[in-house]
Design goal:
The chain is 36% helix and 18% strand. The chain is α/β, with parallel strands linked by helices.
């Protein structure tokens, strides 16, 4: 774990930020250096779940790094091989689709693609209201992609949101540790 740098990217599933940010601290406490990345939307949007600046300040304090939030600033991750692994948590259905289909029109998708180009593990923590709907095919593509590892996930509210899937964010660290060994943590569906 020492001397390993992990990119940690957040996308716009704002309702899960309160569960994700403590996982960044858990990773730093475990000895990982964290390079923080936030999607353009998550970097600039205040919601009922909190102010963007508060999340940015907290993340920068934990990681001691400035949050990357533009395509221009995330592009060097590939050519300079800046990270040993990349985590996208929460990863929205929109970002899942972009990564699964090679679209790099956001800083997170660019960082993920650059990371995979270097044959480094990409860990995805799903958070999408249509995981068992329109996003299902893209989750399937990623689950079969070389170098992509899924944080175990399940339905978060099957009665009121039957298509919604959310990763168990507390399993990010063990998923990363397994991914660094080339293994998918099991079970994936919990």
């Amino acid at each position: 774990m020492e001397n390993l740098t992990v990119g940690f990217a957040l996308t716009g599933s704002f309702c899960t930020f309160a569960k994700v940010v403590p996982q960044i601290k858990k990773l730093t406490d475990a000895g990982y250096r964290i390079l923080p990345i936030m999607s353009e939307i998550s970097y600039q949007t205040d919601t009922r779940f909190g102010k963007a600046k508060d999340f940015i300040d907290t993340i920068e304090t934990i990681t001691q790094h400035t949050v990357i939030h533009t395509i221009r600033d995330s592009e060097p991750i590939g050519p300079k091989n800046l990270v040993d692994a990349m985590i996208v948590a929460p990863c929205t259905g929109n970002t899942i689709a972009k990564i699964a289909n090679g679209i790099t029109d956001s800083c997170v998708a660019m960082a993920a693609k650059a990371n995979l180009r270097n044959n480094n593990p990409l860990i995805i923590a799903i958070s999408t209201n249509d995981g068992l709907g329109a996003s299902g095919k893209n989750i399937g593509l990623l689950s079969n992609a070389k170098g992509v590892y899924l944080v175990p996930f399940g339905q978060d509210d099957p009665v009121h949101k039957p298509d919604s899937l959310v990763a168990h964010m507390e399993l990010i660290l063990p998923t990363l540790e397994q991914a660094l060994q080339g293994k998918q943590i099991q079970p994936v569906l919990v």
